[in-house]
Amino acid sequence: MTSSYGRGLPHLAAAVDPRAAGDAGPVIELIQLAERGGLDFVTLDDDGRSVLDAPGTLAHAAPVTSRIGLVARAAGPNAAAALGTLDWISGGRAGARTEGPGAAGDVVRVADAAAGRAGQWADVVLVGAGSPEQAAAARAEVRREAAAVGRDPDGVRVLAALLVDLGDGERAAEPGHGGGGPRFTPSGPLYRGGPVDLAELITGWHSGGAVDGFHLTPVEPRRDLERLVNGTVGLLQHRGLFRTFYPGSTLREHLGVGARRFGAPAEGAA
Fold first, then answer.
1. Residue ranges of the domains in the chain?
2. How far is CA 129 from each of CA 8, 14, 134, 209, rounded to the nearest angstrom?
3. What would the pLDDT profile of 60-119 be if each residue is shown by its tens digit?
4. Domain at 11-253, CATH homologous superfamily
5. Residues facing residue 217 across a β-bridge
6. How far apart are CA 237 and CA 228, in angstroms?
7. Which residues fall within 8 angstroms of residue 216, CB to CB, at 6 or more apart?
8. d(C-alpha 107, C-alpha 236), whole Å
9. What pLDDT is attached to residue 21?
10. Distance CA 26, CA 236 (A)
11. pLDDT digit string (tens) for 11-40?
12. Which long-range contacts (CB under 8 A, 24 or more apart) does 140-144 make?
């Protein structure tokens, strides 16, 4: 399925990091909500506060989800093995939020552009940008990095990373936010406004070729993810600008990226 503007459909992902420590239950509920919206994947950081680490929490989510990608930030000598186990349990839906090419095995690699030369080894690169022009420049640099090492630039997905505050509901976005563009904050570019304005922003940046999609971090996890799925994604689906079902079952299929060709799997990966 392709959209009317010919670039295919945008890729959408969301962070599901809880605001407070606790068990895996609330996180799993957020992941199930994101899957109902057809998001490509969710990310979960291992902040050291939760009872379960990120791969362990996502391993609990795998049996109660069926399609959505599960991307964990993990570190340490057992990271590759934990991610490999998650990939096996989830049927190929695992990914690693990582700062380098090592210690992730063969799962999908998601990296921040700030990690440096991420286009050389990552499958998905997240860029912080306050305008489509900035995003397009960052995407072009990632694609140059990929081409420099013989990778197909079209095989790397570049997503704009935004904090989203949808607390204003359906009201128009504040000046400097939403329709006027995200505002930079110490935590990264912030969109503040309503779900409809966010849908317009996603459509505009993607249709203009600035990015391949978006990674969105809700300011209020439950509230903002619900408004993202029910409002923004629902509107995009109604307009034919986002999928209504998963055509594949693995994270690589969702993203349209093939098997990794560079480097050997880390030792200990399942």
1. 11-253
2. 22, 17, 5, 14
3. 999 999 999 999 987 777 888 999 999 999 999 999 999 878 766 789 999 999 888 999
4. Luciferase-like domain (3.20.20.30)
5. 163
6. 12
7. 12, 13, 14, 15, 162, 163, 164, 228
8. 29
9. 60
10. 26
11. 999 999 876 666 788 999 999 999 999 999
12. 141/113, 142/113, 142/118, 143/119, 144/119
Helices then strands, counting H and E runs in the chain, come out as 8, 10
- Ranges of beta strands (E only) in the chain are 11-15, 41-44, 69-73, 94-97, 108-112, 124-127, 157-165, 183-185, 188-192, 213-218
Residues 6+ apart with CB under 8 A from 19: 220, 221
The one-letter code for the residue type at 262 is F
Percent of the chain with pLDDT over 90: 69
The pLDDT tens digits for 130-187 are 999 999 999 999 999 999 999 999 999 999 999 999 986 555 445 444 455 799 899 9
